């Protein structure tokens, strides 16, 4: 816009649309259906507003409304199929329920998570969903002080409702699958190695518990050196396995698709012994079915998790005990070709 050019107002739009300013305002703030304004008029107003480059002053309009209908979500990563699916489905579900969704990525940085939470609350978000947050209780405390509801997704907190996958049961099932396949195909009974994740992370701890429980049920001891929880990094997973050159059957429990990238990198560089390796991954990607040595993957039920989260929105005394959502175990026929 050139200096001195007058900004388009609601009154300008009303004149161009041959409608009242109040009708135009209702169309722009999304309340036109309640006022029984026709779809034809609403479409005409929106078209003219777009042509005129009119942008709603969000903060000013919020001050004039009783509710913002904004539901915010923070996610740690976009370059992960699981978190990407959460963000996408969240937006679709929120709009279908009459909310306006706002999603921001915080890179697993606790300070960035907190700053994002404060910013969303400044825009009068009615609810904040913290997905995979590193310090969810800090965010929940700030939300509570601000009179805003908070919900934890994927990782639990102590001070707000939490919706998470049943990591323990799914990890136990995946461990069983890998061990069974090692026995059937390699005549080998374990123990498996646990690759990826952080022991301080709730989900890793729960998965490791399920992993160890299945071994214990079979009377198999797992050496401490077999727990390779080196973080969520493909490079670190590959490095952890670098010295492993299988000359006998080997099984791996891989704790995320990020770590799986490192496992596949290591696997592809084996000059011999690749046919002796079996592994499974606690995470889901359709391409996993084509990976050599992969016997199965755990798919977290994103739709059910989000449904449970939306059921909690608006409940004053929602329980803080974690709501556990079962996962799906997907088994694959063995593929040994790289």
TrEMBL record:
A molecular function GO annotation: DNA-binding transcription factor activity
Entry's Pfam families? LacI, Peripla_BP_4
Q: Does the keyword Transcription regulation apply?
A: yes
Per UniProt, the keywords (alphabetical) are:
DNA-binding, Repressor, Transcription, Transcription regulation
Is Transcription set as a keyword in this record? yes
Residue span, HTH lacI-type domain: 8-65
Q: Which PANTHER family match?
A: CATABOLITE REPRESSOR_ACTIVATOR, LACI-RELATED TRANSCRIPTIONAL REPRESSOR
The protein here is known as HTH-type transcriptional regulator DegA
């Amino acid at each position: 816009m050139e200096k001195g050019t007058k900004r388009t107002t609601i009154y300008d739009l009303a004149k161009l649309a041959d409608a009242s300013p109040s009708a135009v305002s209702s169309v722009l703030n999304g309340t036109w259906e309640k006022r029984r304004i026709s779809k034809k008029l609403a479409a005409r107003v929106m078209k003219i507003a777009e042509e005129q480059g009119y942008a709603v002053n969000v903060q000013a309009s919020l001050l004039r409304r009783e509710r913002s209908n904004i539901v915010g979500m923070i996610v740690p990563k976009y370059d992960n199929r699981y978190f990407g699916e959460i963000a996408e489905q969240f937006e679709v579900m929120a709009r279908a329920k009459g909310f306006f969704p706002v999603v921001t990525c915080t890179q697993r940085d606790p300070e960035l998570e907190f700053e994002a939470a404060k910013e969303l609350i400044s825009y009068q978000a009615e609810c904040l969903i913290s997905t995979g947050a590193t310090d969810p209780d800090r965010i929940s405390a700030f939300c509570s002080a601000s009179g805003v509801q908070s919900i934890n997704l994927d990782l639990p907190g102590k001070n707000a409702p939490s919706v998470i996958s049943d990591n323990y049961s799914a990890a136990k099932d995946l461990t069983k699958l890998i061990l069974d396949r090692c026995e059937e195909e390699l005549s080998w009974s374990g123990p498996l190695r646990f690759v990826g994740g952080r022991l301080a992370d709730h989900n890793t701890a729960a998965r490791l518990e399920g992993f160890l429980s299945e071994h214990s049920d079979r009377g198999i001891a797992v050496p401490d050196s077999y727990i390779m929880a080196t973080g969520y990094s493909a490079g670190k997973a590959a490095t952890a396995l670098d010295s492993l050159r299988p000359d006998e059957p080997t099984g791996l429990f891989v704790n995320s698709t990020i770590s799986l990238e490192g496992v596949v990198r290591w696997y592809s560089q084996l000059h011999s012994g690749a046919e002796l390796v079996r592994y499974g991954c606690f995470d889901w990607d359709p391409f996993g079915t084509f990976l050599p040595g992969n016997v199965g993957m755990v798919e977290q039920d994103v739709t059910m998790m989000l449904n449970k989260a939306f059921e909690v929105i608006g409940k004053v005394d929602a329980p803080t005990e974690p709501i556990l959502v079962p996962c799906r175990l997907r088994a694959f026929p063995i593929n040994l070709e790289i």
